[in-house]
């Protein structure tokens, strides 16, 4: 096979090496981190053989256990709350002509994406401190509602995209065929929205699970999630136990993101029939 | 059956307001194949959607079998729609789609099943019952959309350009199929299209619309042979327009003096002028070309061969152009040549005076 | 009748919006107003505030009152932190552009069916924990880390280079964690790019470099601006990365703000600094909206 000597209009000098270096750069640190989580020694720099001991020690660490449970409770609650609110908000703001207050609503929903996290964290610290003094309540609800708030835009985006891609005629067809609004929503809208809802929920879950800054500022004493626990550990001598916890968290995130990708891809194909 | 009077719809308000329906008055009869014909943006779809309940008219009344339906939401109206892009539910099978309306009416399961089976048979889709709607062809989707809308036995079936997405051959088949379904089911069809040929071949009656108004209602032959307005004459088929003066009007016959000085009888228009300058519409195929001086004379500018017929473009002596169409015959050489002086002849009663 | 259905739709819309609006008002927008109020109060001795009006916090953002003789001078500490925040954020943005642009171009010129996979590879790190990714960078550039080990092992250097806890480390870390935000919008505009324009340019005697400069870049510029803003804004407010990789020595704005709520115990100053950061971010966002027209932000 002779090499084609045709002029490649898309080639730009040096772009391919830079791009490939970029991918290596993106993954090299993560891969090394994962590798050293299996290190037999205490170092995160010198390889001393394969071992699962750091996973075992992380698993048996009471603080890690508590933090894991707390992380999961918060992520689960926040993603359910945020996704429910996002579905309703998406229904109200999509496929409608602009309404009074639309810009404001849109800005509010996207606010967590635009405002630096540290500013929101400080604001919540101040606000919740006032409430804590006034009510004496120091429970988990502060973290759950704070996480719900910054998860809303992430849940909202895929749901809105899904709704926008949906054929408005389908609901009209449902109404034309004697479906009352609620039944049309149940039988026509929701089944088609479902991949978007699932995707939004998963994104919200990942975002909540990964949050450091807001959690660090909002948490009361003893309310460490996995990320804030790890942040605390990084001030000390680091052992591969942190790598082990990181690897476990990475695995969850990557699995959810890939599931999200497949979900949104598959979903688009079934509606993109015409 | 359907009585619409004074129906008006304005979109938007103030300076950007758009009058989509302008005082629509029409009565659609029982078991009729009624077509709304017009170019895009003429308001035909808005009118259809007003009947279905997706458009809320600004004023006017709309009754179906004497019942005022304007206050009813779409799901409470005894009409079903075949949507332009079919709007089949992608998460349901063919059979589930067809049964959806009955399910929403809470009919018994057994009844739903038997009706769905009947419908599948009616549109010849029995073999496809359990397919997902994304797994069938465009023509099949069309049939399913029809079956779904017919299954609840509506009093009126509304069809919004249902054939526009099909290719030419399939469209011809579906035109015949639709006529068959309409006569078999006895349901009133209200059909929206911008395709004049489709309207002429399928309809019992046609309403020609433009700019939110109905310009003329009548049978296909009536509309074609006797267009009342310039827009109708122009939109449906090809037409020559001649300036003329009315000499006299008697009943539905008007005596006209043409630019050439000759007089000819033509059909008068209801409510039109009885004297003065008018426009006369004459179809090209209703005229003949002569070597001698005739009703009107001119110079032959161009000869265009179309296979089935030939078009002769004539520049009239008084100004203006005119097209004569002649059906072609084999083994007859072309009798005319470009640049020749020719005459154009047509019979009394062939032309139609327009309401300008 | 038309009027009635309109009001009904409006009521239904706000009913649907109310849960999201309540949560956001309670835990995002509302508290911001309280921050503004706090910035005008007097600091309490042990954190918190005393409810009396004061503009001290706002003065303290840039000015220092001498402890002994009450003279005013520019606060070198604060100004240098402001300067470092802006400088490192700009550097991060610039490096991210230098690497991100060719990467986005590379992905956009792959065959259609493999582009999504490449983009997924870009996005996976983005959706994984920021702290973990920062930690991963930390492990690599430590004195005992892979980079130094390899360099020493090869005999290129005798002593490990101190990279961790430097401004370089912070920039590298921020570049690493925010790079996907640069690639994403550039790719989005590049994917729509019509390569027949490039053919036309070559046909009209343009060189490769000129095609890039005069044809490709101007057309995908909105994506570049969007990407730059998306990298610049979170860099400016970064907290975790400078904390972990700067080692408490090289503070950025985010850390300075945190300090006021921790050791510094000057809540009003922390509030004023937060509003200042917010204002800079808003200016950048307005610049973005102006230049990118009304294109919606897809990610942030």
What descriptors fit this protein?
heterotrimer; B: 356 residues; alpha+beta; 6-stranded mixed sheet; C: 300 residues; mainly alpha; two-stranded antiparallel ribbon; 12 helices; globular
Write the layout of secondary structure elements.
The complex is a heterotrimer of chains A (274), B (356) and C (300).
Chain A: H1 15-36, H2 53-60, H3 62-93, H4 102-114, H5 117-135, H6 141-165, H7 168-176, H8 181-210, H9 213-218, H10 226-233, H11 240-271
Chain B: E1 2-11, E2 18-28, E3 33-37, H1 44-52, E4 59-64, E5 67-68, E6 79-82, H2 94-104, H3 109-122, H4 138-150, E7 156-160, H5 168-185, E8 188-193, H6 196-202, E9 205-210, E10 213-218, H7 220-225, H8 230-235, E11 240-250, E12 253-258, E13 263-267, E14 276-282, E15 288-290, E16 296-305, E17 309-316, E18 321-327, E19 341-345, E20 352-353
Parallel strand pairs in B: 3-8, 3-9, 6-7, 7-8
Antiparallel strand pairs in B: 1-2, 1-4, 4-5, 9-10, 11-12, 11-14, 12-13, 14-20, 15-19, 16-17, 16-19, 17-18
Helix pairs in contact in B: 2-3, 2-4, 3-4
Chain C: H1 2-38, E1 41-43, E2 49-53, H2 56-62, E3 63-65, E4 72-74, H3 76-108, H4 112-127, H5 130-141, H6 146-153, H7 167-191, H8 196-203, H9 208-236, H10 240-246, H11 253-261, H12 267-292
Antiparallel strand pairs in C: 1-2, 3-4
Helix pairs in contact in C: 1-12, 2-12, 3-7, 3-9, 4-7, 5-7, 5-10, 7-9, 7-10, 8-9, 9-12, 11-12
> What structural category do the secondary elements of chain B indicate?
alpha+beta
Strand order of the largest sheet of chain B: 6-7-8-3-9-10
Q: How much helical structure, as a percent, in the residues of chain A?
A: over 70%
Q: Supply the number of helical segments of chain A.
A: 11
Brief account:
The complex is a heterotrimer of chains A (274), B (356) and C (300). With 274 residues, chain A is mostly helical.
